[in-house]
Structure formats: C-alpha cells, structure tokens
Amino acid sequence: MSKAMVCSCEDVTVDDVKHAVSRGFCDVESVKRYTGFGTGICQGKSCLAAVASLLEREKALKPAAVVPFTPRPPLYPTELRLLASAPVDMSVPPVGGVPQEVDAFPSSLRPEGPVPEKAKVVIIGGGIMGLALAYNLACEGETDVVVLERGYLCAGASGRNGGGVRMQWGTPALVELAKRSIDLMKSFARDLGINVWLRQGGYIFLAKTKPVADRLDRNAALHNKFGVPTRIISADEAREIVPGLTMKDCLTASYNPEDGVIFPWPFLWGYAQGCKKKGVRVETYTDVTGFETSNGQVRKVKTTRGDIACDTVVLAAGAWSPEIARLVDVQLPNEPHRHEILSTEPLKPFLGPLVSVLDTGLYFSQSMRGEIVGGMGDPLEPVGLNMGSTLRFVTRFAQALMEQLPQVGHVKVLRQWAGCYDVTPDNNPVLGRTPGLDNLLQMSGFVGHGFMMAPAVAERMAKWMATGESDELFTRFSLRRFSEGTLEREDMIIG
Ligand SMILES: Cc1cc2nc3c(=O)[nH]c(=O)nc-3n(C[C@H](O)[C@H](O)[C@H](O)COP(=O)(O)OP(=O)(O)OC[C@H]3O[C@@H](n4cnc5c(N)ncnc54)[C@H](O)[C@@H]3O)c2cc1C
Q1: Phi, psi dihedral angles at 418 (to 5 degrees)
Q2: Residue 399: predicted pLDDT
Q3: Domain boundaries, the chain
Q4: How far does the centroid of ligand 1 lie from the alpha carbon of residue 154, in Å?
C-alpha cells in the first residue's frame, strides 16, 4: 500500500493511480478522469510527470503510449471579473482556439491484436449513446455486441458536457424520455454499482423577452400534463431559490425542482463496466475507417484493427456521425457546432438549481465538488468539428454570469474546454433504420441534450432491436422525416 501523494491538489495517491490501472484505466487521459489528478488548481503542472512515470513503471502501457493529457486554458487560475474585462472584439466570429485537439489518437495507444472477426451487433462510438445501448442490449439477452471507440471513454461530447438533466422540454416526446431517464438515473448506483452524483436541485429558466416568456408559459402547462411540477415563478421567488440572483432584464422564470445535475464521467464508466460484466466487448483506441456493403446491407465494418463481419451496425458517433455515414454514401443532416464550457475553483454549496437564461444560452450550476460549471452558446460559432477553447468564450460567459450573479466575480476559473453539439434541423435526434441500408441503424443528432436522453432512448432502442416490437420513436425520429418534411421542432435548446 502506498499513500504517497502524486497530486496534492486533488489528494491522489500512488495507490489511487494503481487502482485506476487495475480497473482498466491505463492511459493518462483516462487516469486523469478516473482519479481526478491534474484537475485541481495546478492543472497537472506538478503531478503529470509523476503519474506518467508511474504508468510506465506499472507497465500499464508501452512507453511510447505514455503521452500527456491535453492541457486546458487558462494558464493559471484567473478571476472571472478579470476575464470579463478582457479586450475581445465580439464582432469577430470565434475561429480556432487552443488546444487544437488531434483528429487521430497516437497509434501507440492502440491495443495489440485484431478486433473479433464477427459480431451480431457492431456499435460505432463509445459515448453515452453507444455504451448505454450496448448495456441495454445485453440486458435484453444480446451479448454478441462490440462497441468501437476511436479514443478513450469520455473523449467525445459525453465526457465534455455540463451534466444537466431536466424534464423541461417543449415537446411531449422529449418530456417523456427525460422523465424516464431521470427515473433510471435514480437507480443507476444500485443497478450499475457506481455513484453518478445525481443531485435534483432543479432548473430555473429565465426569459428576457416576451416570445421566450410565452414559450416558458406554454411549456410549463405541457409539463404539468405529464406530471412534471414545473411552475412559473416571480423574480422574488427566483431570488429566494438562488440568493444573489439579480434577474436583470428578466421578465419571468420557470422552475422545476425535480430537474438536476449528474457527474457525466462515472455515468459512462458505469455503462462500460456493465457491458464488460455481461460479455460485451468495448474496444477503445479503435477507429472505424470504412464499410463493406452488398445488396443493400452492411456486411463488414472496417477498423484500424481489422474488419468485423456483422448482422447489424449502429452509428452512434455523435458529432462524427455524418463523416462516418459518408463512408457508405449516406447523408445525415446533422452539423457539428462547438460549445465551450468551463469550471471554477470549488466553493461551499450555495447554488441549488442549474440556472439558464434561455434567450442567450447562458447556463451555470454548482457541481457536487463545489465548482461552478457553466457554458454559453455563441450565435457566431461556425459549423465544424472544433474542440479548441477561446478567450472570447470565457469573456462572454464571465460578463453574462456576473450580470446575473455579481458576487462570483472574484471566483477563479480553473479550466475551460469544448465539445461539439450534434445539431439537426429540428433539434431532435436521428434514430432507426437507414433508407437503402436496412441494417445500418442511426443513433445520433442529440444536439446538447444527449446525455440526459441516453438511458431512456437506449432502453427503448435495445428493446426495439432485440424483440422486433414496433416503437413509434424510431419512425417519428427517422432519417426519412427530413426528406418527407415531417419535422417536429424542439424549442427548449440552451445555446
Ligand atoms: C459543452 C457541452 C455541454 C453539454 N451539456 C449537456 C447537458 O448538460 N446535458 C445533456 O444531456 N447533454 C449535454 N450535452 C450534449 C451531450 O454531451 C451529447 O448529446 C451526448 O454526450 C452525445 O453522446 P453520443 O454518444 O451521441 O456522442 P459522443 O459522446 O460524442 O460519442 C461519440 C463517440 O464516437 C467516437 N468516434 C468518432 N469517430 C469515430 C470513429 N471513426 N471510430 C470509432 N469511434 C469514433 C468519438 O471519439 C466519441 O467518443 C453537452 C454537450 C457539450 C459539447
């Protein structure tokens, strides 16, 4: 046993790192997430080398595979009020950003040996969608499943999101899915043996304009029909729930005390662990590079570790889905849009709900670790797979946050990062069969809310796949709707 400290900011010991390795978290990015090393005030400056040499000594990886984790701005903890005053020209669209994350992970991280020669179901993408589906298929008795992930678990949007889970939606389909998901989350620890730190502190949506206020009114009535206790609250009530909230320029607010936040990483690990226990193979650092098709069917999935023959393929690669679909000449209407997010130093608990100004896309909540976690959409963000971080974002965010919560100006930002929303024309997912390639199933297009939808969508999709029973979800949200013009627009999108 070694209690020797490797990361003093986050109290991570040599033993903690060894434990992570014994659970299969061997590369530096995964160990960082599993143990928390490098996520504190020094951002890895004093512990990264120690962890890397420990991993090399443990022979967890080939020496060439011990590569550092992606550094995150700012260079040192910086107060929100300083960031708010940075001289940024807001008329210039946010291009670029740092770091420019790699398109391909180093081949030294690739596991040795080929992927299985065949499997009944191949799932492309080891994000929350792919893993939740694989786990639910196994629960339905289908364990001949392989999940292919080009990076580490949590490399995509599922490891980069704000962890918000809410029932406040604008269409019955999403209200029902979110309700079911939150029910499943409540028993996740018991079912999957991992704590996802679900905290139902509620969500407060603020409206600054009449059309948004009307939307909140209309949607609250819809929620009540489904048993969701959303209510419209006055500015004073909002200030009672969130002391110090200014409600500047806000006309009204809606509040559902049963919405909440979770910690995204254990959620993914829980599903991945559940998959492995049931015999499903989760192959990380394995890229899908192409397909073999004949007679309107996908026959094989080609990867950097060989081909897999299969009966069914599920495309669950989030914002990367369109580029993978193009490899079999399928056009998806999804577009990737970068969304930036940040986290501050930890504070004592002071913020119950997640607060969002629906008009501007600002949102912020307090994590169970005490950090303020928040983001804000950018109307000038160009379409594209970009996960760089910008000063423009932190400045816009800090200004918007301090407008509503001025007392946090002295709080320091520890790190910022970005991920991609997987945006569809009607803000609803693409699910079900692909016209012309019947055994290629789609599971993407979850915009900025896939995390909270995954448990319920995966449960229904696994049942639909395993039993063949019809389910209207997979016709309602099928790819055909874009050519048939039967779109159903969701209007409760943050950012
Ligand atoms: C900043 C931000 C904040 C968000 N906040 C929330 C929130 O509060 N609540 C919420 O519910 N949702 C939120 N979301 C959205 C949510 O994170 C996504 O909808 C969800 O994670 C999508 O899951 P996924 O499995 O479809 O995609 P991903 O998690 O992106 O997984 C797709 C995986 O496919 C892999 N892949 C790509 N190409 C290949 C290839 N060629 N071969 C093999 N694998 C490949 C990728 O590496 C990736 O891991 C947020 C998103 C962002 C970016």
Answers
A1: -150, 160
A2: 98
A3: 5-69, 107-160+265-334+426-484
A4: 8
Q: Does residue 404 contact residue 239 with C-beta atoms inside 8 Å?
A: no
Mean pLDDT, the chain, as a whole number?
96
Interatomic CA distance for residues 80 and 328, integer angstroms: 46
Distance from Cα 272 to the centre of ligand 1, integer Å: 15
Atom 22 in ligand 1: residue holding the nearest Cα: 450
130 lines ligand 1 (CB under 6 A): yes
Tally the C-alpha atoms within 13 A of residue 106's C-alpha that lie toward its C-beta: 15
Same fold, 5-69 and 107-160+265-334+426-484: no
Q: What pLDDT score was predicted for residue 258? A: 98
pLDDT for the residue numbered 58: 86
Under 8 Å between Cβ of 69 and 28:
yes
Sign of CA dihedral 355, 357, 360, 361: positive
Q: What is the DSSP string of 267-317?
A: HHHHHHHHHHHTT-EEE-S--EEEEEEETTEEEEEEEBTEEEEEEEEEE--
Whether 404 shows a pLDDT value over 80: the answer reads yes
The distance from CA 36 to its chain's CA centroid, rounded to whole angstroms, is: 18
Task: Tell me which fold the domain 5-69 belongs to.
Answer: Arc Repressor Mutant, subunit A (1.10.10)
Look at domain 107-160+265-334+426-484 and name its CATH class.
Answer: alpha beta
**Ligand 1: distance of its center to the CA of 309 in Å?**
26
Q: Tell whether ligand 1 has an atom less than 6 A from the beta carbon of residue 448.
A: yes
Atom 21 (ligand 1) nearest CA: 158
Pocket perturbation via mutation, ligand 1, pick of 29, 136, 150 by most ligand atoms within 8 A of CB: 150
Q: How many helices (H) and strands (E) does the chain have?
A: 15, 21
HEC letters along 40-76: CCCCCCCCHHHHHHHHHHCCCCCHHHCCCCCCCCCCC
CA–CA distances in Å: residue 365 to residues 3, 307, 416? 33, 44, 15
Ligand 1 atom closest to the Cα of residue 443 is 26
pLDDT class of 95 with cuts at 50, 70, 90: confident
Determine which residue's CA is closest to atom 39 belonging to ligand 1.
Answer: 150
Write down the pLDDT at residue 111. Answer: 93
Distance CA 5, CA 13 (A): 4
Mutate to test the pocket of ligand 1, among 128, 282, 366, 443 (most ligand atoms within 8 A of CB): 128
pLDDT at residue number 148: 98
Q: Output the six-digit token pair for 171.
A: 């269409």
- The best mutation among 338, 428, 449, 492 to test binding of ligand 1, ranked by most ligand atoms within 8 Å of the C-beta, falls on 449
- What number does the ligand 1 atom closest to the CA of 452 have? 11
434 within 8 A of 474, measured Cβ to Cβ: no
Length of the chain: 495
Q: Cβ(455) to ligand 1 under 6 A? A: no
Structure confidence by residue, pLDDT tens digits, 129-139: 999 999 999 99
